[in-house]
Specification:
Strand content: under 5%
Shape: globular
Largest sheet: none
Structural class: mainly alpha
Helix content: over 70%
Distance between the termini: 41 Å
Order of helices and strands: HHHHHHHHHHHHHHHHHH
Number of helices: 18
Length: 445
Amino acid sequence: MYIYICNICITKRSTDRLHIALWLKFQVLTMAILMRILMNLFRKKPMSNECLEKTKLARVLTLLDLTLLGVGSTLGAGAYVLSGAVARDKAGPSIVLSFFVAAVVSVLAGLCYAEFGARVPKTGSAYVYSYITVGELIAFIIGWNLILEYAIGTASVARAWTANFNSLIDNAVIDYFNSTMPIRVDYLSEYPDFLAFGLIALLTILLTVGVKQSTLFNNVFTIINLLVLLYVIICGFFQMKLKNWQLTPDEIPAKYGKGGFMPYGVSGMLSGAATCFYGFVGFDCIATTGEEAKNPQKSIPISIILSLIIVFLFYFFVSMVLTMMSPYYLLDVNAPLPAVFSAVGWDTAKYVIAVGAICALTASMVGAIFPLPRVVYAMAEDKVIFGVFSNVSEKFKTPVLATMIAGLFSGLTALIFDLTELVNMMSIGTLLAYTFVAKCVVILR
């Protein structure tokens, strides 16, 4: 093409030759710029042993810290709310199989994160994994996807925490804000939830002070949550009746299936598994600790799988206790555990369960907000967002500015937004991140 145009230049007048030459230079320059842009968009992050070992953060997290972080961020509303809704309307007693199927799928996703956590122990989770294997553009999209996912997750758990707390004090806080500062705007909350905002602010300060302090806080609340659920399981064993897994069609309303172990059939059990899958979301926060774990190549893979196994066992036994203590069609979808214990005359148990729910939601909130500043920090380190967010405090060894911005963003989301649609977007974002991590494992191999 270039030779052809040069031949034309020879045969034309000088002015025509000049115009053609200028046009040719313009075309070449444009193509060079476009190629440079494309190369930058799809350039991959190089990884060396020196790069993997170098970090400005403090390597203080043990295998126990990482496991409890994964359990705390995952074992939350699924045990206290999700199990009752799925058992009554989708799966019946076969919810135990729904949780098993969901656990198998989650473990497969967890194995992908575990392999990357061992081979690329860097802060950033799916963002870093995408940057190494498929390029900067996809990594940039995944990074912002993770930021929105964790921010919305933190805000939704904070709103759930305040709703649970309000139910214990007869909705005093809700009634006060509804009467004094109502919001009459579509897609926004009915009232500004300052309690949720304050709770996120406290956690942000805790995360700023140090990673060890925040994980210690998470460990305490996670252990209390596990003890409460263990109490529920042990007490429930004394009230279980196998008959509740063998109900006949004559004993239940027609809209609740056909009775038996699978009242809604295999399709109902699988539909329940799809819902139960979101009860396992949260373990990926472990993958963001690659630069803060003492031995990331070993502790990250083990803690991911171990946390998923622990979460599955508690989901399995809690759902078994629920469906054996009460006929599945009588379960309360909002508070199934307190309702079944009240039905058998154990009213004291509901106060223990309320404490467990508060602790579970607190641990889930820590697990949701913990990875958020680390993703911001990883993106700032690579200069795909403002580099100032990668500054690490010499005293606390944490990305202070990234943590503050992340906390402010999450707090404002919890303060004013109606989270119903945002939660649906978060679910889509979670599946997108899981999909890309699985694809990146194949590419890395």
